[in-house]
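Worked Example 4.2. Consider the chain below.
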Amino acid sequence: MPTCADVAPIAQALSVLIAGAPIHAGALTVVPLLAPPGGEPDWLTLAEAGDAVAVTEVSEAGAVLAAAGATLTISVSCVEQGRWARRSERFTSSDVSLYAFARRKKAARVSESLRRHGGHRADQGEVWRDVAARAGQAGAAVWIAGAWAGLELLAAPGLFARAWPRLASGYVADAIGREPRPSFTADLADVRHAILRATAEPAPAVGLGAEQRLGGTDVVGAALVVGERVAHLMAFPA
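Applying the procedure from the previous section yields the following structure tokens:
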């Protein structure tokens, strides 16, 4: 089976990234991924589309890019308790991207942290300011308590800046109550090599573009490729 290194748009997108200075906020470390200048796609996120888009189901596949005026049938994965309610059949966008089971684990972890430390470890507003997207940033590699937690890469800095707050929310929540690891080194080269070694299995995209499912012993994830451009690459430790 081919690897991500064999998929030219993915290999190219990863090869041109420049690592910015690591940002540390408690147990959370974010390495900004800076991309060379390029054109911004005229794509909207779900939140930006607002009432112009009616979503009645949400995909379990990953990123979906819909053409203007398109009607898509998308397989269901209900990712957050309360997002589907009897009052409406429509899905609503949220400022938070976090699974219900993660919230349960987070509550227990924060309670333990409060017992041990006598208070919340960091002001969350300060964390959000610390990890906000930088100029030229098209992606982010994230470590939590010294362990690699994920990589997000979008097609261009403008698109990333609009999508990052929701993507970051899950990582920020995962870091709550975790012990910082001040002595570790966030090694982007190792992460990049692990992603390039991951298998890339083509799959039909729900909307525009082509999907690649990432797998292997070290990495899981997915990438949506539109033309010769990676719209969104998400990779996580297996």
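The beta strands are 18-19, 23-25, 28-34, 137-144, 147-154, 199-204, 210-215, 219-226, 229-237. The chain is about 30% helix and 25% strand. Compare this with Example 4.1 before moving on.
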